[in-house]
Amino acid sequence: MAPFGATSVLIFGVHESPLAQPRNVIGSNILAAIVSLIILHFLGSSPLAMGMAVSSAIAIIQFTGTLHPPSGAVALVVMMTKPDWQFLLTPAFEGSIILVLCAVIFNNLAEERTYPKHWL
Which of 11, 34, 41, 75 has CB atoms 3.0–4.6 Å from 57's, for a disulfide? Predict the structure, then answer.
């Protein structure tokens, strides 16, 4: 999933950022996928629905305090590829978990790096 490239920049490049913490990565990707799948199911994938999916995803991740910018792209991926509900598990949830686990291992190999700063 394309947004994982941007997630990787955050969790490996600026791992101390609040936007790169596990709660944000996992929570935001899941919430963006859920919101987008609901909009896709009820409204289809028109340009208007795409805009609604992205803006709704941003609103919900801001409201829940799980802001993670690549999740805006998750909403677009859902609207453009029209996946089924399995998308929530693979790639959204499983991919986010795998990336966070890799970041925990990689970032903590160096003494001067600590990841995550907080889990929740």
Answer: 75
**DSSP 8-state class, residue 90:** I
Output phi, psi for 102, to 5 deg: -60, -40
Please tell me the pTM assigned to this model. 0.94
Give the tokens for residue 73. Answer: 């792209």
Taking residue 41's Cβ as centre, other Cβ atoms within 10 Å add up to 11
> Cβ contacts of residue 33 below 8 Å, gap of 6+?
74, 75, 78, 87, 88, 92
pLDDT tens readout for residues 31-74: 999 999 999 999 999 999 999 999 999 999 999 999 999 999 99
Q: How many CA atoms lie within 13 A of 78 on its CB side?
A: 36
Query: Where does residue 59 rank: exposed (0-12), middle (13-18), buried (19+ CB within 10 A)?
Result: exposed
